[in-house]
Fold this sequence. Notes:
CATH superfamily: 5'-nuclease
Structural class: alpha/beta
CATH topology: Rossmann fold
Mean pLDDT: 95
Shape: globular
Strand content: 5-15%
Number of domains: 1
Order of helices and strands: EHHEHHEHHEHE
Largest sheet: 5 strands, parallel
Strand order of the largest sheet: 3-2-1-4-5
Low-confidence stretches: none
Distance between the termini: 12 Å
Radius of gyration: 14 Å
Helix content: 55-70%
Number of strands: 5
Amino acid sequence: MAIKNIFIDTSAFYALMDRSDTHHEKAKNLWIFLLDEESHLLTTNYIIIETLALLQSRLGFEAANLFARDILELVDFIWIDKPRQNLAYELWLSLGRRKVSLVDCVSFTAMRHHKIEHIFGFDRHFEKQGYKILV
């Protein structure tokens, strides 16, 4: 595969952690592959907050803590500053009622800024924005 930079979405992190998720096996296999390939894995601080909240809500505090302790050490963070947040907000406004979240818009702007083309995730909004989903 040899893809340099790969962005990870909440949907992938969640599927990786929840064995009952329909995408769990795909997520687990791709995660192992990406680690074996020594891919550069990136996400935003917004995705981390969203993922931790989702895990704690659905799977409990221990699952969220396990994620924070064991998974996040393998991923680099893109920290979103105010100008990037403002760009994401403008994008969110322009997309209107297409069920695209502000967190997704933050991801889109971060990926564009860092020239990341590939995403590990299951959210088809990324594909509609022109990104290549790895699954």
